Amino acid sequence: GRRSESTLPDVAERTLVAVKPDGVQRRLVGQIIQRFEQRGFKLVGMKMLQASEDLLSQHYSELRTKAFYPSLLQYMTSGPVVVMVWEGHNVVQTSRTMVGPTNPVEARAGTVRGDFSTHVSRNVVHASDSPEGARREIQLWFQGQELVQWDCCDQHCLRGA
Ligand code: IDP
What we know:
Blueprint: H1 2-6, E1 14-19, H2 21-25, H3 29-39, E2 42-49, H4 53-59, H5 69-76, E3 81-87, H6 91-99, H7 112-116, E4 125-127, H8 131-141
The structure holds inosine-5'-diphosphate (IDP).
GO molecular function, one term: nucleoside diphosphate kinase activity
Organism: Betta splendens (Siamese fighting fish)
Main location: other
């Protein structure tokens, strides 16, 4: 977990962010990418796809006993999603803050869900909820060669020593 990572300071944290089908339909992809770019995170993977029920059942395996699970799968397969991997300091937790609480009624203006959604069943985005969850989800959605290692020219400006 976090402890072993902190002994390897140059291994940047990564998270999986997805624009869900409602976000794609509503043409919010650009605005969502913009928020992560301007915050200072580095995009290392991105693709658009129609997610399969099989993939989503693995992604949401912890929720399979919930009453809303069938409608969640229906929603998530209703159209294409845009999945991204973002990298940077504390990117998992910061992304959750940027996305806002699961239920938009609790999401403040300024968060993605607080700015763009009203209903928990159409909450526009996904973001991994822990570094362990992020690793699992990134492996599930991306092949290793789809993730790009590159140097971002402003990286040294984004953190202290
Ligand atoms: P998260 O997306 O904020 O991590 P989770 O509890 O992991 O929240 O739930 C996954 C997704 O399932 C939510 O983003 C939302 O789309 C959907 N969901 C969660 N709770 C409900 C509900 O009570 N009704 C309908 N959909 C729900």
